[in-house]
Amino acid sequence: MSLQISSSRCFRRLFLSSFPPELLNEIVHYSSTPDLLTFCQISKQFYIITVRLLYRVVVLAWPVQAVKFCRTILTLRVAAFAVRRFTIAFPVKHLSRNFFGLIAKALARTVYLEALDISNALPLLVQLGPTSFRCLTQCSLPYSTKLVQFLKTHQRIQNLAVQPPTRHHVSHLVTDEFPYILLPRLETYVGPSKVAQFVTPRSNVCLLTIFWDSAPPDLVVHSLALSKKDVHTLDNVVVRWDPALFTAIATCLPGVVMLRIRNANLSNANIEPFFENVLSLLPKFRSLINFSISHIYNMPVEVADLEKEYKTVVRWGQVVPTLQICTLRSMLCWRLVVLHLTSFL
What we know:
Leucine-rich repeat, LRR (right-handed beta-alpha superhelix); 13 strands; elongated; alpha/beta
């Protein structure tokens, strides 16, 4: 009986080993996790393909998963070489430094890592230190002075997201002495304005989402204009309606195509002077197609508000011929169609 089972297994291995790698990849790709674990026992070729698929994208939802991941990466070279994207998705509060040291040691073996998301794991950024990921092009990091060393080591980054600061990490906040860092391949940036002004000059950045802090708007926007490419999309998250910000954008970035300003504060203080400033400066924009001024949170809307928005958008369309789409505080999308304004929910 055991001889028959052994012969059957040998036959399956020989049969499957005759498949071309492309077909094996397809079989593995469309199989469930339990089936993949079974495939690992069939043949070495199946094992390698399966491990590469299982560890290509790693999202750790629990600390226990992190420990298991580290054990695997530190013992299986094929798993370490398979990792392309790594994310920590669990709260890191109260976890020990040794825990993050173990993760950093495992990550150091993932030489082909392309995307790293540790935006909620400042202790891990500290532990990574001088670790270099030669293939890293996309990362999401916490707001800290430790950014400096990490970014200087990874100048191939194309997409950078920096988590805005929280009260829990005051001692790690970026200071006014944050140095300029050359990221020549950077194309997309999401993060605080204080960091943006030091990483965007001489880069290829053209898509930005800026969380405005205490940094002067004129200095930051001027640094954005030093990108080697024209800024196409600029999304601004603010806490107050600041005419100086719009003045800086109109002066330094008149070629922007999509411009959005979102207020995280429910207050409408100083909004009328802000809109007056917008109207006076809109003619400076030569390519503006999509323009939005709104709150992050939905506000109560009345019919009178919509009538006022309609008149506002009509005036904007008259001074900016390229303008096609507008979104204001009602969150209605006003679209210019053959010189007639209509609204779409």
